[in-house]
Amino acid sequence: MGLCTALFAIYCLLFTSCTKEGDTIYKPTPGEEQPATTPLVTVIYGPNSLGDRSYCDLIYKGIEMAAKQYGVRTLQLAPESEEQGLAYLETMFRQMESASDTVRRLFIMPSPVYDDFIRKNNKRLEKNPYADLLYMETTTPLEGKGSTFYIDYYGAMYMGGCMAHYGVEDLLTVLLANPYTQTVREAGEGFLAGYNDSPHWDDRFPVQVHVRYLSNEPVGGFTLADSTALRIYDEEEHFLEEERTNEVTFVPICGGAMHTIIRALHARMISTDNYVGIDGDMTDDDAFCVFSIVKHIDQVTVDYIGLWLNGSMPKHQTLGLADGATGAVWGKYNYSGKGGYYRFPEKVDMDSLRQVAIRKEEERYEK
Asked: Rounded mean pLDDT of 195-209?
């Protein structure tokens, strides 16, 4: 297949892209001969990341919210491999370099897997005044065209670490995707700092904290097989003493792997086991979810598309607990079932805790 043919094939894929479930994400109006003049927002996710029911799915939700609120067209692409994602990117950059229309286009990149390509190629968009780029989430602004932002999760995770004392017995297991990804590492540090800074609800019932990494690869640990999740559960259940079953609280800071863990654990969890929801609010219909630490990336996405439309998208911005970009929500069940124990959300002054966590987050960021 020649280069032109390959690019044409990719171009066709871009405009008839489907999710892994087979649902069409976007398709132009049948019979439309000229490009629509309505602004177009295109998202290229990381490989196999759409469908994680947390971070990326919240972005998807935000894009759809923005489409309804602002009337923009959307194109959301879920490549199956890094190579396919890079091919999408190269095709789009080439199109923007040679485009002669005046359609406004925003390209959103929510995955660090494309970092090297974006930083080497973003200046190519300077040839087109109608195309722009938004790169989530990085602490390093782009040199040349494009905007970036970073959501600091430290403060919300600090809140979660404090809250954990009021719904934990025996063992608190913090499952981190890997020790290299900045957002994962900082989230783990915030949670552990909050836990260590807070008194336990009853010293008669001491808790041990166990930190585990799911991968030693820089971008690993975000996917997990059910069998591996069950093995991890069994290992943690007998981590303290071989002859007894522990009551475990899991804190899965590992993206899409979190839902594999939760799905697999529901079949095994005893009534006093539980977990902490990450990114989205998972407390609605699950008594096992003691509380959720939330990243409001869906609303941040909507806000940034609005800023882009009115021409005021900032070059770089760091958002956090004080901005409402993150937060923590108690579970709606104070009793975890037969043989379980009560949780004590009333013992935590959430407003005061939030102010302490904001200060901790700001102090850390200033350093």
From this structure: 83
